[in-house]
Write a structure and sequence with these properties.
Helices cover 53% and strands 7% of the residues. The protein is of the alpha+beta class and 383 residues long. The protein has a five-stranded mixed beta sheet. Strands 6-7 form a two-stranded antiparallel ribbon. Strand 6 and strand 7 form a beta hairpin. Helix 1 crosses helix 2 and helix 12 packs across helix 13. The mean pLDDT is 93. This is Renal dipeptidase.
Length: 383
Amino acid sequence: MNLTLNKSSLSKELLYMINLLIDSQKHSYVNLNWNEFLAYAMHHRVYPLLHSKMKERTESIPEHVRHSIFLDYKQNVFQMLRLSAEMNHINEILVKQKINSLFLKGPVLAEELYGDLSLRTSSDIDLLIPLKDLKIAEKLLIDSGYEKEDYIQTVLNDWRWRHHHVTYFHPTKKIKVELHWRLHPGPGKEQKFEQLWERRRKSQNIGSAIYLLGREDLFLFLTVHGARHGWSRLRWLLDIHYLLEQELDWKILLDIFKTYSNPHIGGQVFILLSQLFHTKITNEMKPFISKKAIKLADEALYYQVNRVHLHTIPLPIEVANYHKMHVVRLRSFKQAALYYLSTLHPFPEDAQTLPLPTSLHFLYFPLRPFLWIWRKSRKLVLS
């Protein structure tokens, strides 16, 4: 099976940056646009690792480029130290209330994958807790000075499975915390917290009792998260690249992909890594690779070519349409069927269109098609 992707549209500045990140001497580039190079480094959030790699390289990299990368690296060191201290604080207040938590990204992931919290960027703290402990954990954060940023509109408790986290911000510390009760937005089948907790690992370098996902669960989480965002940041691919250097139980990995996601998502990341970071495709990876995985990997290059930033509001129409269709193609048949079934469940918009007492919210099920038609017709009239 031919895994070669068409990389002709990738800029030489991006390719040079990738070569630096993986210590490759395979290609040399001339007449680089160094402002573009710095823009890629910032967009992909890889400047801490670039700083480490550039110190070891002797080729002629302009001094102003090295200095710019160094300044970003230094700022990130302080940011990660602040996040690390706050992560320990949050963990302590949860432990006192006997709330189990799994830290998903941030400093704990930097230490786990890179062996140094300064080599990865992070803008917030993500942690997963059992749904039953959400109210207590929220109170603990608010008592610690955090303010709730997300106020989810919901009907018939659909927030429990449609959404996956709530965001809190500390106005003094300038730190954001995402409190998860699911790993990903729904609908979708996920491991129960108790299953993830049984396979948890203890952080060796940050805090005395900080836990993170087991390696296979972490691989699935990072892969599905990266795929859902089109691998629009190379940092997410680098995370998988370094995770593959650790010992994985490939049987467990394939089983959880089949049960909770789909193997072609794993195949997509393996192909992207092989084409961009020269990762060797091993026999253990081959069950994940298919024609669909190759197509999805090829589609993901669009995000690299166009330096897509999915948090830009509003997204350019072309990017928004492309991303919408790409996310649809990521789903397996079962996932697509579940998604379309979920649209039959009432949405908060239904309650806004026709407010009913809470005791009568069950009526939104038979009323939903009519309310949807009413909203569409109103939009047409207004337009």
